[in-house]
Specification:
The protein is α+β, with helices and mostly antiparallel strands. It contains three helices and nine strands; from the N terminus they run αβββββββααββ. A six-stranded antiparallel beta sheet has the order 6-5-4-3-7-8.
């Protein structure tokens, strides 16, 4: 009895699942894609506005290739670039800069309070290296931009069972 109820529940929930509609970035010569689903916030540049602005994907119209968002609507062809951020890199960057700053501040405080405390070149190098590594990680790896054109293409996908 329980397996039958489970199967019925799964089939009934297929009609309400909205996770089957995507805005997909396809990369040339790469089978892996990046998918953005409805309700997700993305950063884009368009042909009309050459600045980064964020939109929340609300609805897709597949026949005309239109994305509906909170400020209006836009065609998939009008998107010139899309930016992806990596939160893990951001968190590691914050941790390293916090460690480096803390190392330098506490070392300077201990040196000021007690002249016997060792705060020499080695301690300064550790703190500055952590600060530089955190800053460099964020600059180099936190943001990834996809410029549409020859290498990247955007496509709307509807994988729902109709």
């Amino acid at each position: 009895m329980k397996p039958i109820l489970l199967v019925l529940f799964l089939f009934a929930s297929l009609t309400v699942v909205s996770g089957q509609e995507y805005l997909q970035i396809e990369m040339q010569n790469n089978p892996e894609t990046i998918k953005y689903h409805l309700g997700q916030k993305i950063l884009i540049k368009t042909k009309q506005v050459d600045e980064w602005h964020s939109i929340v994907l609300q609805k897709f119209i597949y026949e005309s290739g239109t994305i509906i968002h909170e400020q209006g609507m836009l065609q998939v062809e009008d998107i010139t670039a899309l930016r992806e951020t990596r939160p893990g890199v951001g968190a590691l960057s914050i941790a390293l800069t916090t460690f480096g700053g803390g190392w330098l501040v506490f070392g300077a405080i201990s040196q000021g309070l007690d002249n016997k405390a060792e705060f020499g070149t080695r301690e300064v190098v550790i703190g500055v290296a952590a600060l530089a590594a955190g800053w460099g990680l964020k600059k180099a790896f936190y943001k990834r931009d996809f410029h549409m054109g020859k290498r990247y293409k955007l496509r709307l996908l509807d994988l729902r069972m109709q």
